[in-house]
């Protein structure tokens, strides 16, 4: 892979108006399940060099060699088209065996480790540039102009839990950590630590809060409905009492007012 990065970087230098990038993304859940995605992205100018065909062939015979038994996909983001493959491993160790073999000179990692217990997760490793140096011989542009705006290789890691410490170059919108792999020589240390204890129950508190709000709303609704029924009952009783009231005579005796005349 590191030789492929060298080739792509050299192309990007010559064709500085183009843009290409490679992303290696790893997502580890709290159960240890690890999803790895490797993709190459190229803008329309870079794609035109290959007649609109998949330029990720540069990464291997099939373009999917980097993800053994992976599921291929294509996606578009702006003027960039990405070709890649994704695979789910049952554990980080399985992923590590395929991607971070220290004895493989073509590996993008010279070291990589991930440890997780019930309290925290820790990622450590070293990202390495290609052993070859990009020669300026025959190139119209000095390699020092090679920037992320022209060509970039990114390692993206989604830590389980809540990230507490890291030395990533950037934090993406959904909390993934991004490190830029050096292209023109050098290595980069990566580190991240996350806490699992305070992140695994966050959804419980949200659910409890929602249930409490619903309970309060339901209680208020019952009280208001009961009050309306009581008010209606009192109003009906008052109305019924007025309609059925007994007429009093002027001398305070009940009955027909004419009775008073008869007694005289």
Explained architecture:
- The protein is α+β, with helices and mostly antiparallel strands.
- It has two domains: 2-195, no CATH class; 201-238.
- The protein has helices at 2-14, 44-48, 92-99, 202-243, 259-262, and strands at residues 20-28, 34-42, 71-77, 80-89, 109-116, 120-128, 151-158, 162-166, 170-171, 177-180, 187-195.
- It has a seven-stranded mixed beta sheet.
- The N and C termini lie far apart (127 Å).
Overall mean pLDDT: 75
Give start-end ranges of low-pLDDT stretches.
Answer: 132-136, 246-250
Q: How many separate domains?
A: 2
Radius of gyration: 37 Å
The beta-strand count equals: 11
Helix vs. strand class:
alpha+beta
- Estimated helix fraction: 25-40%
Q: Tally the helices: what do you get?
A: 5
What is the quaternary state of this protein? single chain
């Amino acid at each position: 892979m590191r030789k492929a990065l060298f080739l792509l970087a050299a192309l990007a230098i010559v064709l500085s108006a183009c843009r290409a990038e490679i992303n290696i993304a790893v997502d580890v859940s709290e159960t240890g399940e690890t999803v790895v995605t490797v993709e190459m992205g190229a803008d329309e100018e870079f794609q035109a060099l290959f007649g609109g065909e998949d330029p990720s062939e540069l990464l291997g015979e099939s373009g999917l060699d980097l993800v053994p038994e992976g599921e291929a996909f294509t996606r578009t983001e702006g003027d960039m088209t990405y070709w890649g493959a994704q695979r789910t491993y049952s554990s980080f160790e399985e992923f590590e065996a395929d991607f971070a073999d220290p004895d493989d000179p073509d590996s993008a990692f010279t070291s990589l480790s991930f440890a997780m217990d019930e309290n925290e997760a820790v990622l450590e490793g070293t990202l390495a540039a290609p052993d070859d140096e990009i020669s300026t011989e025959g190139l119209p542009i000095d390699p020092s102009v090679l920037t992320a705006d022209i060509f970039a290789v990114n390692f993206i890691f989604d830590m389980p839990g809540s990230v507490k410490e890291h030395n990533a170059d950037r934090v993406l919108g959904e909390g993934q950590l991004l490190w830029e792999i050096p292209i023109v020589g050098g290595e980069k240390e990566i580190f991240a630590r996350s806490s699992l204890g305070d992140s695994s129950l966050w959804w419980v508190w949200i659910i409890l809060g929602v249930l409490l709000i619903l309970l309060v709303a339901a209680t208020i609704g019952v009280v208001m409905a009961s009050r309306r029924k009581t008010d209606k009952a009192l109003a009906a009783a008052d109305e019924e009492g007025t309609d059925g009231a007994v007429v009093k005579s002027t001398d305070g005796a009940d009955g027909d007012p004419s009775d008073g005349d008869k007694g005289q």
